[in-house]
Amino acid sequence: MISEREREYLKEIDRVIAEGPYDADWNSLFQFTVPDWFSKAKFGIFIHWGLYSIVAHNNEWYSRNMYIQEKEEWEYHRKTFGEHTKFGYKDFIPMFTAEKFEPKEWAQLFKKAGAKYVFPVAEHHDGFQMYKSEISKYNAWDMGPKRDLLGELKTALEEEGLIFCTSSHRAEHWFFMSHGKEFDSDVKEPMKRGDFYWPAMPEPEPQELQSNPYPTEEFLTDWLLRTCEIIDKYQPSLLYFDWWLQHEAFKTVLKKLAAYYYNRGEQLGKKVAICYKHDAMMFGSGIVEVERGALAEAKPFVWQTDTAIAKNSWCYTDTLEYKTCRQIICNFVEIISKNGNMLLNVGPKGTGEIPEEDRKILTEIGTWMKKNEDAVYGSKPWRKAAEGSVRVSEGQFTDNEELPYTNEDIRFTAKGDSIYAFVMCFPKNGQITIRSLAESEDQNVPEFHGLIEQVSVLGFDAEVTYNQDKNGLHVYAKGVDTEYPVVFKIQVK
Prior knowledge:
Blueprint: H1 4-19, H2 26-29, H3 36-41, E1 43-47, H4 52-55, H5 62-65, H6 72-81, H7 103-112, E2 117-123, H8 149-159, E3 163-164, E4 166-168, H9 217-234, E5 238-241, H10 251-268, E6 273-276, E7 287-291, E8 303-308, H11 325-336, E9 340-346, H12 356-376, E10 386-387, E11 410-415, E12 418-423, E13 431-434, E14 452-457, E15 463-469, E16 472-478, E17 486-492
């Protein structure tokens, strides 16, 4: 049931869209341009934190899997917390007190890591809102910690000069709790809008994007109201939407939401953007997102990878399998050389503490970033993204394994008067050859014809000598010893 206040809000949404400049159709939304700051920022932090962080078991899909009798989580829940009729997912809410959450400390850590923007999840598939909401009482202000967690974090981030963004994963809540109806549990009818588990409809197959059961108009309107509430209360510079929003049923309401958000941005005097996956939006109307993967070649458009410090979960658990810092940095270099940004996820504990291993990795990333910031922030792809035999695979879920780089694998960016060459595996003898910077004997071949003025290495007090011939630019850097990519700055006359 829509309240009178919500009816007025829907009228306001229509009014903002009618006043433009963006209309709720792809032809109009195609006029969108990516905010200038985004393409320069390169590195952001994603945060998955919620009720699932209290359980800290397997991954952030615990709320779904604990109600599926074939899943390990179903039996784990019964043994650890009791039968589902007596202790359901909602009973984790009082346990979520966030007693050690220090937003200023988080913001300082993310800034030290070299991030320029931060994406806390406002609402995950489980339906618990991490902010103060007037739409449902199942939120962090009215229950659990009884704090506006999203608002506190926004304030702390902006005080550190970081750009506040946020995400909604609400779309999947249409079916996320549905398996609790298949046996005797606390997920049961009757349900109404605003209830924690509502609507708990049958889960569709992943490929069912144009078939029933469609989300109802009531659910789609609720999704619109919740997302617009986030926009108006917290004014994020970017919004991120997770999967299933590509379902045909969302097309009309998604265009409406995008027009509203982009028009609100115009009213506030700032460019905003939506990050989307699976072609949920028409290309050119937002920022293309690749989950845990990359694009294999440099693109003329800016895109983003969302990935995580851990290989097996987005949230904190007691069984995390961490990537190495080197793996994350190498992945980052691959991404920026191809005109992408990396959004790296951390998973705080239910108490609000950021785990020690996450802190360690973020600190190491920050040290590398500080040394090589000239080659990162504000850079653009060079005319070639890479040389060497190792190539990343195109697509999603491809970044969990470390790649076998050698000293012949080099990635490039450019900025101002310089080309930056990232040597992915620096040799102990300090000698490398950059074949893409060879002297070209044929002026008709589209290779490098520039005049090199100086070559230096970033982040090290090292003596660098070099010479150029038809086989490449041969560089020797004495005294450089590191497991991380080494960056050479090639200044051009």
